[in-house]
Design a protein that fits this description.
single chain, 308 residues, alpha+beta, 24% helix
Length: 308
């Protein structure tokens, strides 16, 4: 399974999340605590920085280089700071139909659209449902799909659930679109009698707020050859930690509440904790959505039951 990362908060050096921490996103490519295979099919991130030129446009990086040897990624991430970020390391099953190219690397953000999306999981029998899914997308959005992944079509469907895909959106509008996306895919799966376990963990952001979903269709139902990723729930988990400062303290990485007032100024979401010590991390339960805002510098997290 892919590895996901989201961040919203005070300015933070991008390498802190991607490379430096003792269980960073890049380290998880080959040293995941829950996986026994490598995630080396592409690395990407979107990073927004307040006060930068064209601050509504994120820094964008996508590469199919092996992340642990990607000097461009290492150098760039140490020079860039962000107050909001989505990161992703892609995994794909080895086979003749699998394509490893930058078009298929997450996060996805179509030209002119302010909201980006990254996905961990996969839709079983996607070829069966692809054209039905495409028919639910706005034509001008469907025409922007360039890659071959189910994830990019999920993004196209999500944008099509918004009244105006190109507008600025509140967290509530993004949350409603995400919920409708999951519901629409469920309807299409039923239409084609697809009842095989399929994961749709999403992190969505426009640089100002963040939405995360942790959802599995037909959990525990398998068809055909079952991959290890399906059998291990830890591979499609989603965690978060919140506080004032993420960094290394006395040789140990953690998110700290520096002033002890209980109010958090920053939050990290990840497929698995970015630190070896996971005592400050909280797991988002299956069939839930996290709606995250930063209001007057304070993080507000609302965990909701998707009710699907």
């Amino acid at each position: 399974m892919c590895r996901l990362l989201g961040y919203l908060g005070d300015d933070l050096q991008v390498s802190t999340l991607l490379i430096d921490s003792d269980s960073s996103l890049t380290r998880q490519a080959t040293d995941s605590s829950v996986q026994n295979f490598m995630n080396v099919a592409g690395t990407g991130f979107k990073a927004w920085e307040n006060g930068s030129m064209n601050e509504n446009e994120p820094y964008t990086y996508k590469s199919t280089e092996l992340p642990m040897y990607d000097r461009t990624l290492m150098g760039l991430s140490k020079k860039v700071k962000a107050n909001c970020m989505i990161g992703h390391i892609r995994a794909t099953v080895y086979g003749e139909l699998s394509l490893v190219n930058t078009t298929n690397v997450h996060p996805f953000q179509f030209p002119g659209v302010k909201t980006a999306l990254a996905h961990n999981g996969g839709l079983a029998d996607f070829p069966k449902m692809k054209f039905a899914l495409a028919s639910k997308c706005k034509p001008e959005i469907a025409n922007k799909v360039e890659g071959t992944t189910d994830s990019e079509w999920i993004y196209a469907l999500f944008l099509s659930m918004l009244r105006d895909p190109y507008a600025d959106h509140t967290s509530e509008e993004l949350a409603e679109a995400a919920s409708r996306t999951i519901q629409q895919i469920k309807i299409i799966r039923n239409q084609f009698n697809i009842d095989t376990h399929s994961v749709i963990n999403l992190i969505i952001s426009n640089g100002k707020c963040m939405i995360a979903t942790c959802f599995t269709y037909d959990f525990g139902c398998y068809g055909g050859v079952v991959s290890p990723a399906v059998l291990s729930p830890q591979m499609h988990s989603l965690w978060y930690t919140a506080g004032d400062k993420f960094g290394e303290y006395d040789g140990q990485w953690a998110m700290y509440d520096e002033d002890g007032d209980g109010a958090s100024t920053s939050i990290i979401l990840a497929s698995e904790p970015l630190t070896r010590n996971d005592s400050t991390w909280f797991e988002i339960q299956k069939y839930s959505m996290a709606v995250i805002d930063r209001i007057d510098g304070i993080i507000k997290v609302d965990i909701r039951d998707l009710g699907l």
